[in-house]
Write a structure and sequence with these properties.
Blueprint: H1 7-20, H2 23-30, E1 34-39, E2 42-47, H3 50-72, E3 77-82, H4 132-143, E4 152-156, H5 162-176, E5 182-186, H6 187-199, H7 203-211, E6 215-219, H8 228-243, E7 247-252, H9 264-270, E8 274-278, H10 283-294, H11 303-312, H12 317-334, H13 340-346, H14 361-372, H15 376-380, H16 388-402, H17 407-413, H18 419-432, H19 437-452
Parallel strand pairs: 2-3, 4-7, 4-8, 5-6, 6-7
Antiparallel strand pairs: 1-2
The structure holds adenosine-5'-diphosphate and magnesium ion.
Length: about 450
Amino acid sequence: MEAHPAAGDWEQFRQTLRGRVTPVTWRAWLESLVLEHSEGSSLRIVAPSEFHLRWVNDKYRLLIEEVARLAFGSEVTVELAAADAQAFEGPIVDDEPEPEPAPAAAVATHPEPGRLVPKYSFENFVVGQGNRFAHAAAMAIAEQPGGNYNPLFVFGGAGLGKTHLLQAIAQHAHDLHPRLEIIYLSSEAFFNHFIEGIRKKRMDEFKARYRGVDLLLLDDVQFLEGKEQILEEFFHTFNSLYEAGKQLVFSADRPPKSLSSLEDRIRSRFEWGLTTDIQPPDVETRLAILRKNAAFAPQVVPQPVLEFIATRVVDNIRELEGALTRVTAYAALTHQPIDLEMAEDVLQDLGPAHMTAPISPGRILAATAESFGVSIVELEGPSRRQPLARARQVSMYLCRELTDLSLPKIGGLFGGRDHTTVLHGVNTVGRLMKTDPTLFDRVTALLQSLRRTT
Ligand code: ADP
Ligand code: MG
């Protein structure tokens, strides 16, 4: 192979990366990565095996992207691949991926694990009192789809791990039974796909697609309430899969009997198998989740700080993680070790009796627009120029932090953007907050003012 033009930057990339991780991590996971080629602003980095790749993608992708930007410039995009397989594209690939053509974007066939969030695995799922039963049922289904628990219906409040659990089933089932056809998707994506089928007169494709799966996981079915057109089709899909012994898994924010606008025949089918709830985590579980997350932080997070966070955020795991991220981001920015005083300072907006009052997306857009000096119409619009694009990503981040909206829903607020675009925006802001003090201050100020005025 001829000498690579980017060879010098690659060495710099490796040295920087090496300085950012422990020697063990370096030797175990990162040293063996190879630059296969770089073209324009895109890098293709290859790991020795599929397994190796998954691990790297899961644990070090953000770090790799960050260091790549330092070494190769801020425009760089990273593709991770395995030497023994096809490219594995994580959810964060390029800047604003164009919305994908049909089928709807959240669909995973033969699940392409890249479409699922790698973090949402059983390994990363902390089991506690509130979710023990749901977890056990989910495991059993991944091991033996179409077995004893069919359908599985998981319900619980926002941020308690329903999506995590459903995606963990999809990923684990795929690992154990690679030949199974598995589809995970939000009810919203399912609905959009259905509408598209009608519009393009391709209902046969729609039917064939969903009736041909072995394991169908439909997230947030409360979304289907009141959508009469699709419920009829859903009913037939359900029957045909169920009768063929295929596994069905549903989640919702309430139990089937409270999905009051659904017809009885559909509601009762949800209850044919196993219905289980997820309860808010007890303090032990909250601590365990924080500890698990803190293990990935570049700094040590002392136990009293974890306890402080665990007592402040009690009923939403997404917020729990968000609070920890803000503290570690602040410490990274200011190059200070994390201590209790700092945590209290950074998390002022989480008062002692922190209640999660709903905050409307409209207010989030208005506040972000004002802070960045752009208009709400521009935030919703197509332009990708800066600082507008960044402002849009910040509003996506705030919507994720402050509301219960799903990724597709958030995308809908911004002119129907794809859920992967939203995820990318949210992750980008989370990452940049660690290196950009201005952005950190701005996001913190927005969070605090939005929370204060509820
Ligand atoms: P829901 O779909 O119920 O709103 P999510 O599945 O999106 O909730 O979970 C919110 C966040 O909390 C995710 O980042 C998820 O990884 C995390 N989370 C939820 N439950 C657990 C758990 N038991 N262990 C570790 N992380 C969890
Ligand atoms: Mg969810």
